[in-house]
Amino acid sequence: MSGASQPSTAFLPIAEPAQMRRAALRLIRLDGRAFTAMIFLNALAAGAGLVGPWLLGRIIDQVKAGAEVGTVDRLALAILLFGLAQLLLARYASYVGHRFGERTLARVREQYTERALALPASVIERAGTGDLTTRGTTDVAAVGATLRDSGPDVLIAGVQALFILGTVFTLDPLLGACGVLGLLGIWFAVRWYLHRALPAYLAEGAANSALAEQLAATTAGARTVEALGLQQRRVEACQEAVERCRRARTRTLFLRSVLFPVVDVSYVIPVAGVLLVGGVLHEHGGMSLGAVIASALYLRQLSQPLDVILQRVEQLQSSGASFARIEGLGLAPQAGPAASPLIPRDDRLDVSNVCYAYDGADDVLRDVDLTVRPGERLAIVGPSGAGKTTLGRLLAGIDTPRTGSVTVGGVPVAGLDPDQLRQRIVLVTQEHHVFLGTIRDNVQIAAPSAADAELCAALAAVGADWIDDLPDGLDTELGQGGYRPDGAQAQQLALARVVLADPHTLILDEATALLDPGTARHTERALAAVLSGRTVVAIAHRLQTAHDADRVAVMQDGRITELGSHDDLVTADRAYAALWRSWHGEPPAATSR
Ligand code: ADP
Question: Where is the ABC transmembrane type-1 domain positioned along the sequence (predicted)?
């Protein structure tokens, strides 16, 4: 694929916050009962946790009032029981939470796979498989970690914090206000930090990568560095990278060194405030000593859920970004217009007045007109970058033309239902994939019900006789730990799949380029025999292919400049004839065999 200038990242869209919220709500609704149970159990656990400090306050008041030891014992026992209840409820809540997280993660994964499989090939090619893979691995893992741990933890902590604050407000609104004051400090500190943390950590990551890159490049090229006397320059470059790292790390250290002390102080302020205000209230008889102590203990308790939230907030932020990328997949452009209900009347391909440009760049196909008759063998030749591959992709319905039309039997090719399209037209390029499994698995993909005899016939048709030498034949395992086919053999497996798929029209984009010239010619002839009566459009890198074809189209600079049979074009004595003569003049390997 010749698309070096194409940016390969950030092509797949990213979901907006509103779309993420909707997606998250939908996921919650899908497992609404578990989610409600998780919240309910957490609320119960938090409620049980609140009883302890209140009972402690009661003990103080009772002791002050001269209560008996038995009363204090009973209250102390109650503290123990409620503590135990809180522990058990919290454990059960987290069990329910984790199950909810796992099920939701499974849904996210399934949805990702469905969406990734539904993406049109052209979208994946342009976005680069790297982006898609990262979303399916790193991003899904980040969301998974949140669903499993951080999400439930933060939810539990949030419920606890709300309950604690609510209780202090109930005891005395003024004391509740002291708690909120402390929280405000944390709120502002965290906002300040988060605002700066993401760019700072990104810069630190980039500086680390740059340093690693410099060191690796210097060591890998040590001999060249020495031979050219570049030591000083390399040392300077590495020092500069180290300095960038130092600056980036100092910055993140500074951010942490502001956040944590502010948070620590913010935990103490409400407790101190409650003791002060509560003391005054108690002095004036507005509040019992027990209530003051209970409030102070509650606010002290508040630091625990807040700590959890603070620790997880960064992870939540980064997994939020991952979720936006996963959800973004659903916003990717879909496979062109809705599948056409029309059935092609025959297999004639018509390219009419077609212009095509990649992503708003200049046209790489200009005013192309071409008709390929059913059963015809057409070779397309021309210099690299002339637009041959692009034309092949339009003929195979992978891309749609910017202007004009590409039709099969009168119906736009790209509008055909994918299954219909693949029965009619198959594009074979140099990119072949060998799937894990046996040779039989690899070839049978094209025709799941094909018997061994058919598989062998297809493999023989493409000249894959190396299979006869394998002791396990069709049952030979391919891939790691098994037999590793080389490029040419992988290509033959792909071609055997095509023979089995038996499409009406075959577009070969340098499909035999990896084979040695002799095998390539043999394979092409064998294929032609198998596919006799089929239409074959071959983008040819060997003029022999053009010689054997019914007609040859010569492409130059996005246009078809010559079109006719080999003999006609040689007689016309233009570019093709010159090419043929210069090629034929030499003793090429392909013709000598
Ligand atoms: P050929 O097959 O004749 O070598 P191509 O069809 O591959 O020619 O390319 C035609 C032109 O389109 C070239 O200028 C190439 O750089 C450009 N091109 C090909 N693929 C892409 C792509 N994915 N994105 C942007 N430009 C591309």
Answer: 37-318
6 lines ligand 1 (CB under 6 A): yes
* 512-521: b (≥16 Cβ within 10 Å) or e: bbbbebebbb
Which residue's alpha carbon is nearest to atom 6 within ligand 1? 387
Q: Ligand 1: does its nearest atom lie under 6 Å from the Cβ of 385?
A: yes
Q: Which tokens hold the place of 133?
A: 């893979």
Q: Are 200 and 248 in contact (CB under 8 A)?
A: yes
Which residues does residue 477 pair with via DSSP β-bridges, in sequence order?
A: 438
Assigned fold of 349-583: Rossmann fold (3.40.50)
Q: How close is the Cα of 379 to the center of ligand 1, in Å?
A: 18
Ligand 1 midpoint to CA 6 (Å): 10
Question: How many of the other CB atoms lie within 10 Å of CB of 510?
Answer: 19
Query: Per residue in 192-251, pLDDT tens?
Result: 988 888 788 878 878 888 888 888 888 888 899 899 898 999 999 999 999 999 999 999
Tokens standing for residue 289: 């000593």
Are the C-beta atoms of 415 and 340 separated by less than 8 Å? yes
pTM greater than 0.70: no
Tens digits of per-residue pLDDT, 114-172? 998 888 777 777 776 777 887 888 889 889 888 888 888 888 888 888 888 898 888 88
Strands (E), 347-439: 349-357, 363-372, 377-381, 403-408, 411-412, 425-428, 437-438
Superfamily of domain 17-331: ABC transporter type 1, transmembrane domain (1.20.1560.10)
Q: For ligand 1, is residue 127 a contact (CB within 6 Å)? A: no
